[in-house]
Specification:
The chain is mainly beta. It is 4% helix and 35% strand. The protein has a single domain, classed as Ribonuclease Inhibitor (Leucine-rich repeat, LRR (right-handed beta-alpha superhelix)), CATH 3.80.10. The protein has 1 helix and 13 strands; from the N terminus they run ββββββββββαβββ. The strands form 4 sheets. A 4-stranded parallel sheet has the order 4-6-8-10, with no helix packed on it. A 4-stranded parallel sheet has the order 5-7-9-11, with no helix packed on it. A hairpin with a 2-residue loop joins strand 1 and strand 2.
Length: 135
């Protein structure tokens, strides 16, 4: 189980009691819960951003939304997410930590046009989701 903690000028994600990733608060994007879609190329080439925390209201991440965010280390995705469009996270080679605020079964229903480039797993509220191998 994971938790997003804000303390002073830091945002830290704690996984099963262990702080696994942290960033300066000014370099973490928090979208308001009135947003349902992350727009196309919204944060493209943002080299300052180190983390994103998306509210449960987000249903869709459009193409290239976070493309080439070279210093992005983590992404926290809301439980209402239905699709991650092509190229949404392409070029984010440091984004090793992806968290989903729902269950593994719920994440199974998220349309992923392609896997996350650097992360080989998504940490859900009830365990770790890994993409199925294609035959």
């Amino acid at each position: 189980m994971f938790q997003v903690c804000e303390s002073g000028n830091r945002v830290t994600v704690v996984l099963d009691g262990v702080a696994v990733v942290t960033a300066v608060k000014d370099k973490v994007a928090f979208l308001p819960d009135t947003v349902s879609t992350v727009g196309e190329a919204l944060f493209e080439n943002d080299t300052e951003m180190e983390g994103i925390v998306l509210p449960d209201s987000i249903e869709r991440i459009m193409p290239m939304a976070f493309m080439d965010c070279k210093n992005l280390k983590f992404a926290v995705l809301g439980k209402s997410l239905l699709s991650v469009e092509p190229g949404a996270f392409v070029g984010d080679k440091k984004c090793n930590w992806v968290f989903f605020n729902g269950t593994q079964k719920e994440f199974d229903n998220v349309f992923l046009s392609e896997p996350f480039e650097s992360a080989d797993a998504v940490y859900c509220r009830d365990g770790v989701w890994r993409p199925r191998k294609r035959k």
